[in-house]
Each structure stands twice: as structure tokens, then as C-alpha cells.
Amino acid sequence: MVRAWVLGLLLAIGGGAQAHEVRPAIGDLTVADGQLTLSLAINAEALVAGIDLDGVQDTNETEGSADVDTLRRLEPEALAPRLSAIVPQISAGIGLTADGTPVTLSEGTITVDPVGDPELPRDTLLVLQAAVPPGTQTVEMSWPREYGTLVLRQQGVDEPFTGYLSGGQSSGPIALKGTAPQSGLMSFLQYIPVGFEHILPMGLDHILFVLGLFFLSTHLGPLLWQVTAFTLAHTVTLALAVLGYVSVPATVVEPLIAASIVFVAVENVLSGELHKWRPVVVFCFGLLHGLGFASVLGEFGLPSLQVVPALLGFNVGVEIGQLTVIALAFLLTLPVLQRAGEGGYRRYLAVPASVVIALVGAYWFVQRAFA
Fold it and tell me: What is the pTM of this model?
């Protein structure tokens, strides 16, 4: 029963993670010469389909999944009018004020990416504009709950605002001349949930890699060796990438991350022991995963005066997320271990789960490398 539940969960992750993933919207906010411009990179198909994205990480979880798939197959010139038709609704849902006075957003431009693999999300850029009164000191924006999560980034000032808005949250007042420098502690605390959410629920490939480490052995020692090696490695490359010392294209990093999932899972099947090379290999793969984490921070942005505290907060959030995955996996598999013993646990759960993880990783590798 538990084995079937766990394997079903892994199959669900593999089947829908890339195809119907809901990515956070990215909003760039600029105010210049009395005009506010909000450039939104959004899940246009989900919005046009009328899906409530609050708390949704996969559109397969919704009744409108088939509609999203159909809309992904539309050419840009066909999807753009469909989105334009609901722009008044989108604008009305976004609460925007200038020095406390409501401001109305109107449509600027819509740019839809060409049709690619309909199984994968594509980006649409919606530009909204509004006039703001002369002498405006602050603007404030709220993001509708049903539109999911928004990463809001202020542009064009020395100390820009960056916010992570979800669940109908408001940005609070955003100073048009730039925000007051944030304390190191505030930056640290602000970025912990960003790192956590990149693992749970958004980091499905990282989750499978951690599960691959977990299923090697029932003993704590092998797991600690692997997790320590993985943590040290991704911390190094995350810092180097964010600070600009290392840059590797996502087209290289993402397939290799998928390959790392295949490797650890296949080794689980072939051997249930921690060989001396395994922590070294995990360390090398951790370097790749750190580059993947850095891409998230590249979208979110870091406060220029508090890069180190924000980076540490993000990394702490990632670690909490990884430990949560391990804790949940332990709780879910403990009944099998208690009932079947180590031999039965490996035969009936660890090996089958690792096979599924390897197949999912292989699918992702092909998808990312050759799509």
C-alpha cells in the first residue's frame, strides 16, 4: 500500500513536472516621466483558460488542463487577441496606487513566444501602463490571489525593491527613488522562503535527486555523507554564480541535472552500499545543482548592498526544503521498513522507487537535451 502510494507519487511528479509546471510570474516595474510601466512575464494560457492559480504548481491539478494544452498549440497571433480580451479583467484585479490614490492600468503590448513543444510552458510578455501624477513619491501594488505568485522587481533606481507576492499579498509602499537600504537580517529572513519554495514545491528535479540519495541505504551515515557533499557543492557554485564568477548556460546545466538524477538512481539499483566514490560524484553533481539554484536568484534578484545575507538566507531555505523532503520520505517509508525489514525495504520499495526515479530523470534528460 505504502509502496504503491510512493511510486504513484513519483510517477505523477515525472509525468507532470515539466509539462504543466506553473512558474511564478515575473514583473518589472519602471516609473519614468510620469508613466508607470509594468512588464509581466506570465502564464498566459492558464489566465486565458480561467484557471485559479492560487496554490497550484501543476495545471494538471485543475479542470482546465486540457484547455491549457490547446492554447499552447495556438500561434502567437491567435493567442495574443485571446489574452488582450481579458486584459481589462487583469488590470482591474491588480491593485495599484500612487501615493495612496488608485491608478488604472491599460494595455501596452503583448508578445507571445512562438509555438514550441506544446508539452512545455512558454512565455508571454504583457506590458501594462499607467499615468502617475507629477511628484509621486511611492507606488503600491497588490497581486490577485488567483494569478499565483509574482516576483516583482523595480527597475531604474539604485536601490530597487524586490518582492515575492503570493496569496493576494501587497508590495507595501515602493519608493520611486529607491528603497532605504535593507538590514542584513531582513534580507536574510526575506530570502529563506524563496529558497524553501524552490525545493518545495517548485524544485521537482532537486526533490528527485534528494530522494535518490535517500533510497541508497536505510542507515543514517550514508545519507549524511551524501547530503553533506551535496550541500557543500551547491553552496559553492551558487555563490560563485550569483557573484558573477561562473556562468554556464541553462541548456548545459539542466540536462546534466537530469543526468545526475539518473546516475544516483541507477547506482541505488546496482548497489545498496555507500562506495567511496559516491560522495565525490554527489559533490560533482551538487556543483551542477548550485548553478540551477543560481538561475532562480537571477530571476528574483538580490539586494545590491546585502548580497551575502540574502544569499545565505536563500541557501538556508534550500537546506530546510531538502531536510523536509528527507523527513517526509522517512515518515512515508518507515512502515515498510518496520514491516519488511531492510531486505524487504530494498526489494519492494527502494529498488522500484529508484527505477522510477531513473526513468523520470532519463525522460527529462532527453527532453532538455533534444527538445
Answer: 0.69
